[in-house]
């Protein structure tokens, strides 16, 4: 056992002394290089950006209201949208206040504004419909 301890101490001492010795190097010392900027490397101040023009609100386009009286309610809505009229309201023409849940079962009997009227694209078009067969 003393022999193992002695060997361990000798190995540890050898490692410690080896780590303390100055390292010998054959590499040449590092050289410092200074590079002067070329004209293409120089930074020029940015030119003043021109402000982007403010977009002004344009008036909605005017659209001639198509005649959809007598058309199936769903087809009438599709036709209005095809002409650029998306603000659509619908009412039960019988005055019963029913909701038009299944548009294909209804037919348009009246519309406001009337067909041929020029309206803004944001105008609300009201379609008055009744169930087919009433």
TrEMBL record:
Chain segments carrying region Disordered: 36-60
Keywords for the protein's UniProt record, in alphabetical order: Signal
Keyword Iron found: no
Residue ranges of every copy of the PASTA domain listed in the record: 64-128
Annotated signal sequence range: 1-27
InterPro entries registered for this protein in UniProt: PASTA_dom (IPR005543)
Name assigned to this protein: PASTA domain-containing protein
Species name: Actinomadura napierensis
Lineage of source species: Bacteria, Bacillati, Actinomycetota, Actinomycetes, Streptosporangiales
